[in-house]
User: Fold this.
Amino acid sequence: MNATEPRRLWWPRSVRARTALATAAASAVILAGTGWWVHRDVYHESSRIAEGQAQERLLALVDQLEDGVVPVRRSTVPYEVVATGRRAAVAYGGGMEEFGPGARHVLPAPPKAVLPAPPPDDGTGWGYATRPMRIPARPGAEPGDLFGEDGGTYPVMYDDVRADELSSDRVAALGIASDAQLRVYVVVLPHAAEDIAGAITEATDRRLLRAGLVGLVLIAAVTYFAVRIALRPVEAIRVLTASVTPSDPRERVTVPATGHEITALATTINTTLQRLDNAAARQRRFVADAAHELRSPLTTLLASLEVALAYPERTDWPAAVTTAARQTRRLQALTEDLLLLARLDTRAPAAGPETVDLAALASRLTEQYPLTERPLTLTCDSTAPAHVHGNPGAYERLLRNLIDNAARHAAHRIQVTVQNQDTWVVLTVHDDGPGVPAEDAERVFERFVRLDDARSRDHGGTGLGLAIARDLAHRNRGTLTLVPQTLGACFRLRLPRALAPAGS
Assistant:
């Protein structure tokens, strides 16, 4: 019985819809991750832009001071220029005027210049520094002011300008002492980077959102139709296999020439259908052969009884009863063979846990085998115990079938040999009869096959003995084959060897 997976109400039934939904979900996760990465990268880039603007402003302020020019207050970034020994700032702007630094500078003044002056810079850089500084709170400030009500700690870039390196005119224009040292402060505001990032990311996020939604729809649609096209051969296979019936499994699916997974599926289904066809043909042949074999003794039995009933006074009743008994025994043997074959076909091949001495079993069967119809010599040759796993009854039936077959064909002698060969136990049954043609070496193991149809069926067996023997051999992980011989027929049975039981 096929097990049916419980269906989830929220999950679509169609494979196309499932694949499209799964692909769209995976794409949404990828696009969301990409958008987050772009947003974060834009913010970091905006911070670098804000720092670059502050650096450019610091450089410009230093250049103006070295030229003796007092910078104007208009600036895109907050700045303050302070000097040694001076309470008020030399210059300020960009929002620092909120603190009223005209009376007192906000950021600390630099120490006096070290004399003599340090050696000139080697040209690898202009030597500015950055460190966090506390911006004091400003009483009366409003929440919307540049630094807020409570001030805060901000990254500040600064650089120093020595007055003794400037001309007297420039020093006088700046209003500082000739031994003073100027320090230029530029405050890097975080919200400046946020303002830059906000303007960029807002537009970027809108475009990414629209592109992502359109992309998800296109990905889902393309996936849906691509899977639909890819599953067309599967649908064709389904339609064709639905028309296959147990009584006529002759339909075959078309194998695509593309070589992909559908090709492997079609090939596997054709192989399965071929096995079903072969099994159905064997079953039909088996039923026909069984009916034919059953009809022959039934016809003989019925004819004998009808003649006896029609002419009771002229009937040889002992002969009639003998004939009826012989045909009944034949029917019984045929029925038992058919039941055994049915059990062998339905049970899994596996050796039993018991250990059987095949040499002792063969020796006992040869001693007890009845040879009453004609003079035959039946011998068994074994040099040592030969243990195998399995059921003793099954092995006895297997050996008896081989000996029965040899007894029907032997002229004078039957030889049974049991040997241990490495990990195998090999048993042979050799008769000196007419033998089997090479082309029929496998056909003799088919069910209801007789190669001597000319002889009486009363002495020819049911045609199932060798088929049962091979099935029993396979069930115990062994093989049964016909070995080519110049005289007679030799059947060889190979079985995995077992360890001798303890105490034997």
